[in-house]
Amino acid sequence: MTVAARTQVAIVGAGPAGLLLGQLLHRQGIESVILEARSRDYCEARIRAGVLEQGMREVLIEAGVGERLEQEGLIHGGIYLRFDGENHHIPMSELTGGRCVTVYGQTEVVKDLIEARLDSGAPLHFECASVALHGIETDAPRVSYELDGVAHELHADVITGCDGFHGVCRPSIPDDVLTTWGRSYPFAWLGILADVAPSTDELIYAWHPRGFALHSMRSLELSRLYVQVATDAEIAEWPDERIWSELDARLQCDGWELQHGPIREKSITPMRSFVAAPMRYGSLFLAGDAAHIVPPTGAKGLNLAGADVTLLAEALVDRFRSGGVTGLEEYSDSCLRRVWRAQHFSWWMTSMLHIDPTDDAYGMQLQRSQLAYVTSSTAAATSLAENYVGLPFERAPAAHG
Ligand SMILES: Cc1cc2nc3c(=O)[nH]c(=O)nc-3n(C[C@H](O)[C@H](O)[C@H](O)COP(=O)(O)OP(=O)(O)OC[C@H]3O[C@@H](n4cnc5c(N)ncnc54)[C@H](O)[C@@H]3O)c2cc1C
Known about the structure:
Largest sheet: 8 strands, mixed
Mean pLDDT: 96
Shape: globular
Structural class: alpha+beta
CATH architecture of the domain at 2-76 and 100-182 and 272-355: 3-Layer(bba) Sandwich
Bound molecules: flavin-adenine dinucleotide
Strand content: 25-35%
Helix content: 25-40%
Radius of gyration: 21 Å
Number of strands: 19
Low-confidence stretches: none
């Protein structure tokens, strides 16, 4: 027996993209059903991003899920670039007319959105198995899945693929429709979460001949730190003492000391850039990591996911309220303009700050020169700052016209 149901928007994936889209639609009275492959605990514990652009913060507040973010998020108006033992402050807020980023963990964003969804009573199903899309080239698409051993079929006007890089939505689009671009970097990030107060008031991005290091944070008590490692590195090769000693060496700066503490989590992340276009095929709209990923150096992935679904929600509201199709027709091109800007910025930050094991000493001298320029020229620092805090989120014409 198959249980059949109907909704306006079927959302595949309960990461930040799917959950925020569901919340934005719900507040405008548009029905949706969110289908997620993993458990609630898994989704809420997945440690990833932590830097929200100004536009992302504004959308979360506007969506009614900003209460804890406003109380607990740490507002940052700058970052440090550290190299050759010297620290250089980039005053982003000053350079961008007051724009800032907020340090607030993706885990917390996801928890806030799941809580809002469950409170609203709108459907969100965890642990859906065998999720598959059908009829996406028509205007009567459906999603089949299994829940607790029972087969389900969800009919919808539109399907949104918010199921991340490894999901099923992007591969449902015929190969000859999609163009993809990508790059894998010859290094990875080993990230730790440590129970120790941050040793800095702003994030530190450090260039060092031994490799890149980043000192970030999640709260006033919790530090998040990363070191560049080889692509084939394994956690077992990195006991706590080795991580701290590498961080000490790469973040070294006169008169400054890194505080150590118990490490509660360690993980290795590959570094990859990827774009698939178009982000629409028939009744299927891709958003977030399902369509594009960036290396985390520029802190852009979560924010791009937020920008995509903000546009998508407004276009869908227009379509369901007044039959307007312009927003949906322009969705892919509008998103891709921002996506490519973020792709370039993420690639640029990554190339400037990491030691490429396939490069030579000449490459390192170019990096030093670029860092010296960015930290001494107001024009160059402003370019970094406006990309880092993020350009304002684009809004669908009908929503604000
Ligand atoms: C270490 C690290 C650090 C990062 N730092 C930053 C940062 O500082 N700033 C930033 O902006 N970004 C950062 N990112 C990137 C950011 O985490 C992602 O871009 C973001 O999670 C994208 O959200 P999403 O909803 O598109 O995809 P995801 O978060 O991947 O969510 C997709 C969801 O779909 C579900 N799913 C998958 N397949 C199926 C299926 N078949 N059926 C149903 N559900 C399915 C998944 O379980 C998941 O819950 C970082 C990433 C990493 C790994």
